[in-house]
C-alpha cells in the first residue's frame, strides 16, 4: 500500500516516521519544502504538489493547519482531486470543519474515491510515540480498510459514524479541553493572588474532584513559565471557532465555549501569543503577569 | 480528646461515624435533631446547642451549610463562643468564606482558643471511606496538633498557611471544577446534537487530553439521567459566589468562573434544580432537555 502524506509539520512528520518504520512507502508534499527534509532523510519521497502525491498513492493522508489549507489541498488548482483515481482512499487527519469533511466525502464519492475524516488528539508526544487517539468519520467499510494504517500512528481508534462525525467527536474533545484550560488558568490566578503555594495547590486539586489531564501535564509547566508548544494556542482558537460555527448551525448556545473562544482570541490576536502553548492562556490575566 | 461535632448532614454524619470508630468520644448538635439520630445510634451524645457542645469538648468541629450558618454556630446567642474555654481547638470544615475564617481565628485568639479552617473535598463517598482531601489554614502548630483527628476523616491533609488559606485552597479547587463541569456539560450537549454515540464520546475524550475526574465519574451518570446528589448544585453555587467575592476583593477578573456561577444560578434559582447534583447543569441547555 503506497501512502501519500501531505503536511510535514510537527504532527505530520512524527506520523510519517512511524509509517516509514512500519515499512510503508511514503510520498510527501509540504507547502514549505524545508520542513520536509527530516522525513525525506528518513526515507520519504518528495512530490511537487498534492496532485502529484495523489497520482502516486493508494492512500492519501492530509495533516495541515486550517480548514482553508484543507480546502486548497483537496480542491485547489494543484489539489488532490485533480489527480485522484477510483479505488483510492483519502484521509483528512487535520482538525477541520465537519461540513468541509462532508464536502470532500461527496466529491470523493462522485469520483469513486473513499474519504474519511480522522482527526487526532494526543499532541506531538502522542504522534511521536504512536499513541494518538483517532476519531473517524465516513463509511465503516473504509474505516475497517484503513485500520492497518491507523494502528501504526495511533492507539485508540474509534469509528463515530458518517462523514464529519470524526470532526464532531474532535470538537467535543476540544470543548471539554476549553473547560479544563479556562478552569486551570483561573484557579492558578486565584491561588497566586491568595498567596497560596501553587505547587501544593496543583498537587491537592489534582488529587480530588478537580483532577484533570491539563492540570497534571500543563500545571507544572505554567509554574516554570514554560509556554513552548505543545499545542499552539492559534490552532486551539481555530478549533473553538469551528466548534462554535457548528453549534450555531445546530442552534446550540454554548456560553462557556464561547467565552473560552473570546479568551483565546484575546491571547492569540490581542496579546500576539498564538505561537505559544494553550497553557499560556494564564498570561492574559493581568495579575498573573504583573507579579511575575 | 473529647470531640464536639456540629452539623450532622451527609458529610458530617459520615465523618462522625469514622471518629466514633476510632474511639473518640463525640458530642453532637444539629439544627434538625432528627438528622442526628443515626450518629446518636452509633454512639454519639446529643447536646442542645453549639454552646453546650463547646462546653463539653476539647475540640469542636463544625460542618454546616452556608457561611451564614457558620456565623450563627460560632457567634450566635447559643453559639460556640458563648462557652469556649482557653486551650480548646475549633475547626470549621464547612466550605465557607476565607474572611469569616479569619474573623473566627481572631475571635478565638482573644479568648485563648486555637482556630483552623479545614474545608474538605471528596464528597459523600470520600467522607464515608475517610478518603477526604483536607485543606488547612491557621497556625501550623494547631494543624500539627489536629493531625490525629484529620487522619481519621481524610487521606490527603495539606497545610496551606495562615487563617483563611484552607478556604482559599478549597476555592481554587472549586474554580477548577467549574471548568470541568461547564466543559463536560457543553461537550455532551454538542455531541448529542451532532448525533454522536455519547458513551463512545465520553470514553474517547476521557482517554486523551480532555480526561478529567468529573467526566469519568459524572459523565456516565448524566447519560443515565441520574442527577441525585452527590454534591448539591446549590452548595456549589454558594462556593462559586464566595470565590468570586474573594476574587473581587483581590481585584481579579475571572470571567470563566463568573460565567459558571451564572449558569449554576440559572440551574439553582432559574430552573429550581438546586437539590440536584452539580452534573445536572446539562439540563439548563434547551436541546438536552427537549430531545430527552
From TrEMBL, chains A, B:
The keyword Oxidoreductase applies. Residues 2-161 form the 6-phosphogluconate dehydrogenase NADP-binding domain. One of its GO terms (molecular function) is NAD binding. This is 2-hydroxy-3-oxopropionate reductase. It comes from Lentilactobacillus senioris DSM 24302 = JCM 17472. SUPFAM superfamilies: 6-phosphogluconate dehydrogenase C-terminal domain-like (SSF48179), NAD(P)-binding Rossmann-fold domains (SSF51735). Belongs to the HIBADH-related family. It holds the Pfam family NAD_binding_11. The active site is at 170. Coiled coil: none annotated.
Amino acid at each position: 500500500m503506497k501512502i501519500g502524506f501531505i503536511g510535514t509539520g510537527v504532527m505530520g512528520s512524527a506520523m510519517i516516521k512511524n509509517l516509514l518504520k512500519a515499512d510503508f512507502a511514503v510520498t510527501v508534499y509540504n507547502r514549505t519544502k524545508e520542513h520536509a527534509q527530516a522525513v525525506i532523510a528518513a526515507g520519504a519521497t518528495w512530490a511537487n504538489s498534492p496532485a502529484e502525491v495523489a497520482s502516486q498513492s493508494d492512500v492519501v493522508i492530509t495533516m495541515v493547519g486550517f480548514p482553508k489549507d484543507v480546502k486548497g489541498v483537496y480542491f485547489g488548482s494543484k489539489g488532490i482531486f485533480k489527480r485522484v483515481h477510483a479505488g483510492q482512499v483519502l484521509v483528512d487527519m487535520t482538525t477541520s470543519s465537519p461540513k468541509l469533511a462532508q464536502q470532500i466525502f461527496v466529491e470523493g464519492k462522485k469520483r469513486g474515491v473513499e474519504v474519511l475524516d480522522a482527526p487526532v488528539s494526543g499532541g506531538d508526544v502522542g504522534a511521536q510515540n504512536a499513541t494518538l487517539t483517532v476519531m473517524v468519520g465516513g463509511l465503516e467499510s473504509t474505516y475497517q480498510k484503513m485500520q492497518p494504517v491507523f494502528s501504526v500512528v495511533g492507539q485508540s481508534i474509534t469509528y463515530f459514524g458518517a462523514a464529519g462525525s470524526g470532526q464532531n467527536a474532535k470538537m467535543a474533545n476540544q470543548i471539554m479541553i476549553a473547560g479544563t484550560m479556562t478552569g486551570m488558568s483561573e484557579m492558578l490566578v486565584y491561588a497566586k493572588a491568595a498567596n497560596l503555594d501553587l505547587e501544593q495547590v496543583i498537587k491537592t486539586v489534582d488529587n480530588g474532584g478537580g483532577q484533570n489531564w491539563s492540570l497534571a501535564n500543563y500545571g507544572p509547566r505554567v509554574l516554570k513559565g514554560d509556554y513552548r508548544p505543545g499545542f499552539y494556542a492559534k490552532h486551539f482558537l481555530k478549533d473553538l471557532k469551528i466548534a462554535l460555527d457548528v453549534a450555531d448551525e445546530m442552534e446550540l448556545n454554548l456560553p462557556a465555549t464561547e467565552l473560552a473562544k473570546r479568551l483565546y482570541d484575546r491571547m492569540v490576536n490581542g496579546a500576539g501569543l498564538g505561537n505559544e502553548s494553550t497553557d499560556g492562556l494564564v498570561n492574559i490575566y493581568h495579575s498573573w503577569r504583573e507579579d511575575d
